[in-house]
Protein backbone atom coordinates (compact mmCIF):
# COMPACT_ATOMS: atom_id res chain seq x y z
CA UNK A 1 0.00 0.00 0.00
CA UNK A 2 1.45 3.41 -0.87
CA UNK A 3 1.66 6.10 1.80
CA UNK A 4 -1.32 8.08 0.53
CA UNK A 5 -3.50 4.99 0.63
CA UNK A 6 -2.23 4.09 4.08
CA UNK A 7 -2.99 7.66 5.23
CA UNK A 8 -6.51 7.33 3.85
CA UNK A 9 -7.13 4.08 5.70
CA UNK A 10 -5.94 5.65 8.93
CA UNK A 11 -8.10 8.71 8.51
CA UNK A 12 -11.20 6.62 7.69
CA UNK A 13 -10.54 4.50 10.75
CA UNK A 14 -10.24 7.63 12.87
CA UNK A 15 -13.45 9.08 11.55
CA UNK A 16 -15.20 5.85 12.45
CA UNK A 17 -13.74 6.06 15.94
CA UNK A 18 -14.98 9.62 16.32
CA UNK A 19 -18.44 8.67 15.01
CA UNK A 20 -18.66 5.68 17.28
CA UNK A 21 -17.94 7.87 20.24
CA UNK A 22 -20.33 10.64 19.33
CA UNK A 23 -23.12 8.16 18.57
CA UNK A 24 -22.74 6.05 21.64
CA UNK A 25 -21.81 8.56 24.27
CA UNK A 26 -22.90 11.98 23.08
CA UNK A 27 -20.71 15.00 22.53
CA UNK A 28 -19.33 15.07 26.05
CA UNK A 29 -17.64 11.76 25.56
CA UNK A 30 -13.89 11.63 25.97
CA UNK A 31 -11.68 8.76 24.95
CA UNK A 32 -10.12 7.38 28.10
CA UNK A 33 -6.61 6.09 27.65
CA UNK A 34 -4.18 4.54 30.11
CA UNK A 35 -0.49 4.66 29.25
CA UNK A 36 1.95 2.58 31.25
CA UNK A 37 5.71 2.22 31.02
CA UNK A 38 8.45 2.85 33.48
CA UNK A 39 11.61 2.23 35.37
CA UNK A 40 14.04 4.08 33.13
CA UNK A 41 13.70 7.17 30.97
CA UNK A 42 14.00 4.87 27.96
CA UNK A 43 10.46 3.57 28.64
CA UNK A 44 8.96 6.76 30.08
CA UNK A 45 9.98 9.29 27.43
CA UNK A 46 8.37 7.28 24.60
CA UNK A 47 5.22 6.93 26.76
CA UNK A 48 5.10 10.70 27.29
CA UNK A 49 5.74 11.39 23.61
CA UNK A 50 2.89 9.08 22.58
CA UNK A 51 0.58 10.69 25.16
CA UNK A 52 1.50 14.22 24.02
CA UNK A 53 0.91 13.26 20.38
CA UNK A 54 -2.52 11.76 21.15
CA UNK A 55 -3.44 14.92 23.08
CA UNK A 56 -2.37 17.04 20.13
CA UNK A 57 -4.40 14.99 17.65
CA UNK A 58 -7.40 14.45 19.95
CA UNK A 59 -7.46 17.28 22.52
CA UNK A 60 -10.47 15.75 24.30
CA UNK A 61 -8.69 12.49 25.07
CA UNK A 62 -8.34 11.83 28.78
CA UNK A 63 -4.95 10.26 29.44
CA UNK A 64 -3.60 8.90 32.69
CA UNK A 65 -0.49 6.93 33.51
CA UNK A 66 0.18 3.84 35.57
CA UNK A 67 3.61 3.33 37.11
CA UNK A 68 5.38 2.33 40.31
CA UNK A 69 6.70 4.57 43.06
CA UNK A 70 10.22 3.17 42.55
CA UNK A 71 10.61 4.31 38.93
CA UNK A 72 11.52 7.66 37.38
CA UNK A 73 7.90 7.94 36.17
CA UNK A 74 6.96 9.11 39.68
CA UNK A 75 8.75 12.42 38.93
CA UNK A 76 8.64 12.69 35.15
CA UNK A 77 4.93 12.01 34.58
CA UNK A 78 3.47 14.62 37.01
CA UNK A 79 6.08 17.08 35.74
CA UNK A 80 4.67 16.54 32.24
CA UNK A 81 1.19 17.33 33.57
CA UNK A 82 -0.44 13.87 33.51
CA UNK A 83 -2.16 12.14 36.44
CA UNK A 84 -0.48 8.92 37.51
CA UNK A 85 -1.71 5.95 39.57
CA UNK A 86 0.75 3.59 41.20
CA UNK A 87 0.63 -0.16 41.38
CA UNK A 88 2.67 -2.39 43.65
CA UNK A 89 4.71 -4.67 41.42
CA UNK A 90 8.36 -5.74 41.25
CA UNK A 91 10.48 -7.03 38.38
CA UNK A 92 11.94 -10.54 38.24
CA UNK A 93 15.70 -11.01 38.54
CA UNK A 94 17.21 -13.19 35.81
CA UNK A 95 18.47 -15.76 38.34
CA UNK A 96 16.44 -17.63 40.94
CA UNK A 97 16.79 -16.22 44.48
CA UNK A 98 14.75 -15.48 47.61
CA UNK A 99 13.67 -12.32 45.83
CA UNK A 100 11.90 -14.42 43.19
CA UNK A 101 9.17 -15.32 45.74
CA UNK A 102 8.72 -11.66 46.57
CA UNK A 103 8.39 -10.87 42.84
CA UNK A 104 5.71 -13.57 42.45
CA UNK A 105 3.81 -12.13 45.42
CA UNK A 106 4.15 -8.63 43.98
CA UNK A 107 2.89 -9.84 40.63
CA UNK A 108 -0.39 -10.75 42.31
CA UNK A 109 -0.61 -7.45 44.22
CA UNK A 110 0.11 -5.70 40.91
CA UNK A 111 -2.67 -7.59 39.15
CA UNK A 112 -5.06 -6.69 41.99
CA UNK A 113 -4.12 -3.00 41.77
CA UNK A 114 -4.42 -3.08 37.98
CA UNK A 115 -7.92 -4.62 38.19
CA UNK A 116 -9.06 -1.86 40.53
CA UNK A 117 -7.69 0.82 38.19
CA UNK A 118 -9.38 -0.70 35.14
CA UNK A 119 -12.68 -0.97 37.03
CA UNK A 120 -12.45 2.62 38.27
CA UNK A 121 -11.27 4.37 35.12
CA UNK A 122 -12.84 2.12 32.47
CA UNK A 123 -10.31 2.96 29.75
CA UNK A 124 -11.08 2.55 26.04
CA UNK A 125 -7.45 1.81 25.26
CA UNK A 126 -4.34 0.75 27.18
CA UNK A 127 -0.85 1.40 25.80
CA UNK A 128 2.29 -0.16 27.30
CA UNK A 129 5.82 1.03 26.57
CA UNK A 130 7.80 -1.61 28.42
CA UNK A 131 9.30 -2.13 31.82
CA UNK A 132 7.73 -4.68 34.20
CA UNK A 133 5.26 -2.08 35.48
CA UNK A 134 3.16 -2.23 32.32
CA UNK A 135 2.79 -6.04 32.54
CA UNK A 136 -0.25 -6.36 34.87
CA UNK A 137 -2.34 -3.49 33.49
CA UNK A 138 -1.77 -4.28 29.80
CA UNK A 139 -2.30 -8.02 30.36
CA UNK A 140 -5.55 -7.56 32.33
CA UNK A 141 -6.90 -5.00 29.85
CA UNK A 142 -6.28 -7.42 26.96
CA UNK A 143 -7.94 -10.29 28.86
CA UNK A 144 -10.98 -8.09 29.56
CA UNK A 145 -11.35 -7.24 25.87
CA UNK A 146 -10.12 -3.64 26.22
CA UNK A 147 -8.00 -2.77 23.16
CA UNK A 148 -4.37 -2.94 24.27
CA UNK A 149 -1.06 -2.45 22.49
CA UNK A 150 2.62 -2.12 23.31
CA UNK A 151 5.49 -0.15 21.89
CA UNK A 152 8.88 -1.88 21.87
CA UNK A 153 11.85 0.48 21.61
CA UNK A 154 14.74 -1.93 21.15
CA UNK A 155 16.02 -4.23 18.41
CA UNK A 156 16.12 -6.98 21.06
CA UNK A 157 12.78 -6.83 22.92
CA UNK A 158 12.31 -6.82 26.68
CA UNK A 159 10.77 -9.81 28.48
CA UNK A 160 7.55 -8.01 29.51
CA UNK A 161 6.70 -6.98 25.96
CA UNK A 162 7.52 -10.47 24.65
CA UNK A 163 5.00 -12.00 27.08
CA UNK A 164 2.42 -9.31 26.32
CA UNK A 165 2.69 -10.07 22.60
CA UNK A 166 0.56 -13.18 23.25
CA UNK A 167 -2.34 -11.05 24.51
CA UNK A 168 -2.36 -7.58 22.95
CA UNK A 169 -3.74 -6.60 19.56
CA UNK A 170 -0.75 -4.69 18.23
CA UNK A 171 2.95 -4.19 18.82
CA UNK A 172 4.58 -1.07 17.45
CA UNK A 173 8.21 -1.82 16.66
CA UNK A 174 11.06 0.65 17.01
CA UNK A 175 13.24 -1.69 14.92
CA UNK A 176 12.31 -4.13 12.16
CA UNK A 177 14.89 -6.49 13.69
CA UNK A 178 12.65 -6.99 16.76
CA UNK A 179 9.89 -8.62 14.70
CA UNK A 180 11.28 -12.15 14.85
CA UNK A 181 11.39 -12.22 18.65
CA UNK A 182 7.64 -11.72 19.05
CA UNK A 183 5.94 -15.09 18.75
CA UNK A 184 2.48 -14.07 19.95
CA UNK A 185 -0.57 -13.45 17.77
CA UNK A 186 -0.32 -9.66 17.99
CA UNK A 187 -0.11 -7.69 14.76
CA UNK A 188 3.40 -6.25 14.41
CA UNK A 189 3.78 -2.82 12.87
CA UNK A 190 7.16 -1.22 12.27
CA UNK A 191 6.84 2.49 13.06
CA UNK A 192 10.24 3.43 14.48
CA UNK A 193 10.58 4.98 17.92
CA UNK A 194 8.64 8.07 18.97
CA UNK A 195 10.75 11.17 19.55
CA UNK A 196 9.79 14.46 21.14
CA UNK A 197 8.62 17.11 18.73
CA UNK A 198 11.37 19.62 19.62
CA UNK A 199 14.05 17.28 18.26
CA UNK A 200 13.13 18.42 14.74
CA UNK A 201 12.34 22.01 15.52
CA UNK A 202 15.75 23.71 15.14
CA UNK A 203 17.92 24.49 12.14
CA UNK A 204 21.70 24.04 12.05
CA UNK A 205 22.22 27.80 11.86
CA UNK A 206 20.03 28.45 14.86
CA UNK A 207 21.86 25.78 16.86
CA UNK A 208 25.34 27.01 15.96
CA UNK A 209 24.33 30.52 16.97
CA UNK A 210 22.81 29.20 20.20
CA UNK A 211 26.07 27.51 21.24
CA UNK A 212 28.20 30.26 19.62
CA UNK A 213 29.93 27.68 17.48
CA UNK A 214 31.86 28.28 14.27
CA UNK A 215 29.88 27.70 11.10
CA UNK A 216 33.05 26.71 9.18
CA UNK A 217 33.88 23.79 11.49
CA UNK A 218 32.36 20.33 11.71
CA UNK A 219 30.65 19.69 15.04
CA UNK A 220 31.06 16.42 16.95
CA UNK A 221 28.49 15.66 19.66
CA UNK A 222 29.72 13.27 22.34
CA UNK A 223 27.57 11.79 25.10
CA UNK A 224 27.38 8.54 27.02
CA UNK A 225 23.60 8.66 27.51
CA UNK A 226 21.71 10.47 30.22
CA UNK A 227 24.11 9.33 32.96
CA UNK A 228 27.33 9.58 30.97
CA UNK A 229 29.84 6.75 30.53
CA UNK A 230 33.28 6.54 32.15
CA UNK A 231 34.83 4.50 29.31
CA UNK A 232 33.55 6.90 26.67
CA UNK A 233 34.80 9.91 28.64
CA UNK A 234 38.25 8.34 28.94
CA UNK A 235 38.53 7.83 25.19
CA UNK A 236 36.96 11.24 24.50
CA UNK A 237 39.60 12.94 26.63
CA UNK A 238 42.43 11.75 24.38
CA UNK A 239 40.43 12.72 21.29
CA UNK A 240 39.65 16.20 22.61
CA UNK A 241 43.29 16.77 23.57
CA UNK A 242 44.23 16.13 19.94
CA UNK A 243 41.38 18.20 18.50
CA UNK A 244 41.83 21.16 20.88
CA UNK A 245 42.74 24.28 18.87
CA UNK A 246 42.07 22.67 15.46
CA UNK A 247 40.43 24.97 12.93
CA UNK A 248 38.28 22.35 11.15
CA UNK A 249 36.39 20.78 14.05
CA UNK A 250 34.60 21.59 17.30
CA UNK A 251 33.18 19.37 20.03
CA UNK A 252 30.12 19.45 22.30
CA UNK A 253 30.61 16.85 25.03
CA UNK A 254 28.24 15.99 27.91
CA UNK A 255 30.19 13.90 30.43
CA UNK A 256 27.22 12.95 32.66
CA UNK A 257 26.70 14.83 35.92
CA UNK A 258 28.61 12.37 38.13
CA UNK A 259 31.66 12.40 35.90
CA UNK A 260 31.95 16.13 35.31
CA UNK A 261 34.13 17.31 38.23
CA UNK A 262 36.75 14.61 37.65
CA UNK A 263 36.77 15.37 33.91
CA UNK A 264 37.19 19.11 34.52
CA UNK A 265 40.12 18.39 36.83
CA UNK A 266 41.71 16.21 34.16
CA UNK A 267 41.39 19.05 31.63
CA UNK A 268 42.96 21.52 34.06
CA UNK A 269 45.87 19.16 34.74
CA UNK A 270 46.41 18.90 30.98
CA UNK A 271 46.69 22.72 30.76
CA UNK A 272 43.11 23.34 29.56
CA UNK A 273 41.40 22.91 26.17
CA UNK A 274 40.87 25.58 23.51
CA UNK A 275 37.42 27.07 22.96
CA UNK A 276 36.57 24.63 20.15
CA UNK A 277 36.10 21.95 22.84
CA UNK A 278 32.98 22.50 24.99
CA UNK A 279 32.48 20.18 27.91
CA UNK A 280 29.40 20.22 30.17
CA UNK A 281 27.84 17.85 32.72
CA UNK A 282 24.55 17.39 30.82
CA UNK A 283 22.98 18.77 27.66
CA UNK A 284 19.60 20.16 28.63
CA UNK A 285 19.38 21.53 25.11
CA UNK A 286 19.75 18.20 23.33
CA UNK A 287 17.41 19.22 20.47
CA UNK A 288 19.74 22.19 19.77
CA UNK A 289 22.87 20.03 20.16
CA UNK A 290 21.52 17.51 17.64
CA UNK A 291 20.72 20.32 15.22
CA UNK A 292 24.36 21.46 15.40
CA UNK A 293 25.93 17.99 15.06
CA UNK A 294 27.68 16.66 11.94
CA UNK A 295 28.81 13.50 13.71
CA UNK A 296 27.81 11.91 17.03
CA UNK A 297 29.70 9.65 19.41
CA UNK A 298 26.98 7.96 21.46
CA UNK A 299 25.89 5.01 23.56
CA UNK A 300 23.17 3.01 21.76
CA UNK A 301 19.97 3.66 23.77
CA UNK A 302 16.97 3.34 21.47
CA UNK A 303 15.61 6.85 21.91
CA UNK A 304 18.97 8.55 21.49
CA UNK A 305 19.42 6.62 18.23
CA UNK A 306 15.91 7.49 17.05
CA UNK A 307 16.76 11.14 17.63
CA UNK A 308 20.02 10.82 15.68
CA UNK A 309 18.41 9.11 12.71
CA UNK A 310 15.40 11.43 12.67
CA UNK A 311 17.92 14.20 12.03
CA UNK A 312 20.09 12.09 9.72
CA UNK A 313 23.21 12.31 11.90
CA UNK A 314 26.00 9.76 11.26
CA UNK A 315 27.39 8.20 14.41
CA UNK A 316 30.09 6.19 16.11
CA UNK A 317 28.32 4.00 18.66
CA UNK A 318 29.70 2.39 21.80
CA UNK A 319 26.88 0.17 23.15
CA UNK A 320 26.55 -0.03 26.93
CA UNK A 321 27.73 -3.61 27.58
CA UNK A 322 25.67 -4.16 30.74
CA UNK A 323 22.27 -3.23 29.28
CA UNK A 324 19.77 -6.10 29.74
CA UNK A 325 20.67 -8.99 27.41
CA UNK A 326 23.16 -6.63 25.71
CA UNK A 327 20.26 -5.05 23.78
CA UNK A 328 22.21 -1.86 23.01
CA UNK A 329 24.59 -3.84 20.79
CA UNK A 330 21.56 -5.07 18.79
CA UNK A 331 20.38 -1.46 18.38
CA UNK A 332 23.85 -0.37 17.29
CA UNK A 333 24.35 -3.29 14.89
CA UNK A 334 21.04 -2.47 13.18
CA UNK A 335 22.28 1.04 12.42
CA UNK A 336 25.68 -0.29 11.38
CA UNK A 337 23.98 -2.69 8.94
CA UNK A 338 21.99 0.25 7.55
CA UNK A 339 25.28 2.06 6.86
CA UNK A 340 24.44 4.86 9.33
CA UNK A 341 26.93 4.08 12.09
CA UNK A 342 30.30 2.61 13.01
CA UNK A 343 30.35 0.43 16.12
CA UNK A 344 33.12 0.17 18.71
CA UNK A 345 32.50 -2.34 21.50
CA UNK A 346 33.11 -0.99 24.98
CA UNK A 347 35.81 -3.62 25.68
CA UNK A 348 37.70 -2.51 22.57
CA UNK A 349 37.28 1.21 23.15
CA UNK A 350 40.33 3.38 23.76
CA UNK A 351 41.48 6.85 22.73
CA UNK A 352 43.44 5.58 19.70
CA UNK A 353 40.53 3.68 18.16
CA UNK A 354 38.07 6.51 18.72
CA UNK A 355 40.51 9.04 17.29
CA UNK A 356 41.24 6.86 14.27
CA UNK A 357 37.53 6.51 13.42
CA UNK A 358 36.74 10.18 14.01
CA UNK A 359 39.71 11.36 11.92
CA UNK A 360 38.76 8.95 9.12
CA UNK A 361 35.25 10.39 8.93
CA UNK A 362 36.48 13.98 9.21
CA UNK A 363 38.91 13.42 6.33
CA UNK A 364 36.50 11.49 4.10
CA UNK A 365 33.58 13.75 3.29
CA UNK A 366 32.01 11.20 0.95
CA UNK A 367 31.93 8.45 3.59
CA UNK A 368 30.37 10.88 6.07
CA UNK A 369 27.84 11.98 3.45
CA UNK A 370 26.86 8.36 2.70
CA UNK A 371 26.43 7.68 6.41
CA UNK A 372 24.34 10.84 6.74
CA UNK A 373 22.05 9.69 3.92
CA UNK A 374 21.78 6.20 5.44
CA UNK A 375 20.95 7.68 8.87
CA UNK A 376 18.25 9.82 7.24
CA UNK A 377 16.78 6.75 5.53
CA UNK A 378 16.72 4.86 8.84
CA UNK A 379 15.01 7.77 10.63
CA UNK A 380 11.27 7.71 11.40
CA UNK A 381 10.42 11.26 12.42
CA UNK A 382 6.73 10.49 11.93
CA UNK A 383 6.76 7.52 14.37
CA UNK A 384 4.91 9.25 17.21
CA UNK A 385 2.03 10.34 14.95
CA UNK A 386 1.85 6.88 13.34
CA UNK A 387 1.67 5.17 16.71
CA UNK A 388 -0.84 7.64 18.16
CA UNK A 389 -3.21 7.31 15.20
CA UNK A 390 -3.01 3.55 14.88
CA UNK A 391 -3.32 3.00 18.64
CA UNK A 392 -6.43 5.20 18.84
CA UNK A 393 -7.92 3.42 15.82
CA UNK A 394 -7.78 0.20 17.88
CA UNK A 395 -10.67 1.59 19.94
CA UNK A 396 -12.89 0.60 17.01
CA UNK A 397 -12.12 -3.02 17.78
CA UNK A 398 -13.50 -2.82 21.33
CA UNK A 399 -16.19 -5.39 22.06
CA UNK A 400 -19.28 -3.55 23.25
C1 LIG B 1 21.28 1.87 30.31
C2 LIG B 1 20.08 1.35 29.62
O1 LIG B 1 19.69 0.20 29.78
N1 LIG B 1 19.45 2.24 28.83
C3 LIG B 1 18.23 1.89 28.14
C4 LIG B 1 17.19 3.01 28.31
O2 LIG B 1 17.68 4.18 27.68
P1 LIG B 1 18.28 5.53 28.23
O3 LIG B 1 17.23 6.34 28.87
O4 LIG B 1 19.52 5.23 29.00
O5 LIG B 1 18.79 6.15 26.82
P2 LIG B 1 18.02 6.62 25.52
O6 LIG B 1 19.05 6.86 24.47
O7 LIG B 1 16.91 5.69 25.16
O8 LIG B 1 17.43 8.04 25.95
C5 LIG B 1 18.27 9.06 26.46
C6 LIG B 1 17.51 10.37 26.42
O9 LIG B 1 18.22 11.32 27.19
C7 LIG B 1 18.46 12.49 26.40
N2 LIG B 1 19.72 13.13 26.84
C8 LIG B 1 20.88 12.40 27.00
C9 LIG B 1 22.07 13.02 27.38
C10 LIG B 1 22.09 14.43 27.60
O10 LIG B 1 23.10 15.03 27.95
N3 LIG B 1 20.90 15.11 27.41
C11 LIG B 1 19.73 14.50 27.04
O11 LIG B 1 18.70 15.18 26.88
C12 LIG B 1 18.52 11.99 24.96
O12 LIG B 1 18.25 13.05 24.06
C13 LIG B 1 17.41 10.90 24.97
O13 LIG B 1 16.14 11.50 24.77
O14 LIG B 1 15.99 2.63 27.59
C14 LIG B 1 16.17 2.50 26.17
C15 LIG B 1 14.80 2.19 25.56
O15 LIG B 1 14.22 1.04 26.12
C16 LIG B 1 17.20 1.40 25.89
O16 LIG B 1 17.44 1.32 24.50
C17 LIG B 1 18.51 1.74 26.63
O17 LIG B 1 19.46 0.73 26.42
Automatic annotation (TrEMBL):
Q: Where is the Glycosyltransferase family 28 N-terminal domain?
A: 33-172
Q: Which GO terms describe its cellular component?
A: plasma membrane
Give compartment(s): Cell membrane
Catalytic activity annotated for this protein?
A: di-trans,octa-cis-undecaprenyl diphospho-N-acetyl-alpha-D-muramoyl-L-alanyl-D-glutamyl-meso-2,6-diaminopimeloyl-D-alanyl-D-alanine + UDP-N-acetyl-alpha-D-glucosamine = di-trans,octa-cis-undecaprenyl diphospho-[N-acetyl-alpha-D-glucosaminyl-(1->4)]-N-acetyl-alpha-D-muramoyl-L-alanyl-D-glutamyl-meso-2,6-diaminopimeloyl-D-alanyl-D-alanine + UDP + H(+)
Ranges of residues in domain Glycosyl transferase family 28 C-terminal = 219-384
Q: How does it sit in the membrane?
A: Peripheral membrane protein
- EC code: 2.4.1.227
> What CDD domains does UniProt report for this protein, alphabetically?
GT28_MurG
Residue positions annotated to bind UDP-N-acetyl-alpha-D-glucosamine are 40-42, 154, 196, 226, 328
What's a Gene Ontology MF term here? UDP-N-acetyl-D-glucosamine:N-acetylmuramoyl-L-alanyl-D-glutamyl-meso-2,6-diaminopimelyl-D-alanyl-D-alanine-diphosphoundecaprenol 4-beta-N-acetylglucosaminlytransferase activity
What GO biological process terms does the UniProt entry carry, in alphabetical order?
Answer: carbohydrate metabolic process; cell division; cell wall organization; peptidoglycan biosynthetic process; regulation of cell shape
User: Keyword set for this entry?
Assistant: Cell cycle, Cell division, Cell membrane, Cell shape, Cell wall biogenesis/degradation, Glycosyltransferase, Membrane, Peptidoglycan synthesis, Transferase
Give a short account of what the protein does: Cell wall formation. Catalyzes the transfer of a GlcNAc subunit on undecaprenyl-pyrophosphoryl-MurNAc-pentapeptide (lipid intermediate I) to form undecaprenyl-pyrophosphoryl-MurNAc-(pentapeptide)GlcNAc (lipid intermediate II).
Listed NCBIfam families: murG
Q: What family is it from?
A: Belongs to the glycosyltransferase 28 family. MurG subfamily.
Q: What is this protein called?
A: UDP-N-acetylglucosamine--N-acetylmuramyl-(pentapeptide) pyrophosphoryl-undecaprenol N-acetylglucosamine transferase
Report the source organism.
Answer: Succiniclasticum ruminis
Origin organism lineage: Bacteria, Bacillati, Bacillota, Negativicutes, Acidaminococcales
Name of the gene encoding the protein in the UniProt record: murG
